[in-house]
Amino acid sequence: MPKEPIRQLDIERHFCAAMIELRKHKMQLSQEDLSQKLRARGWPVSTQATISDIETGKRRVNLTEAYWIAEMLETTINEMIEVGKFL
Which of 43, 56, 62, 70 has an alpha carbon 20 to 30 Å from 81's alpha carbon atom? Predict the structure, then answer.
């Protein structure tokens, strides 16, 4: 039986949930801590407000940003969007 396709909004929702869970519980980082790590990585516009907007779904991320976020959270984009892993 073929898998049901995953919708774009589902992927984004899973990414946001994973970001929150990994940032708070695995890495024990504040939003400001994560934004500082991302700025050091080369994302100059990363601020605490940017992280908040991403986590709440107010701001979408592009592929490079998603990669950097996953990297800073010591995971992969695939793990972050895996259905059922963080939601």
Answer: 43
Question: Going residue by residue through the chain (87 aa), what tens digit of pLDDT does each one get?
Answer: 556 666 777 889 999 999 999 999 999 999 999 999 999 999 998 999 999 999 999 999 999 999 999 999 999 999 999 877 886
**Identity of the amino acid at 38:** L
Residue 45 is classified by DSSP as T
Question: Does any domain span residue 51?
Answer: yes
The domain of 58 spans 8-81
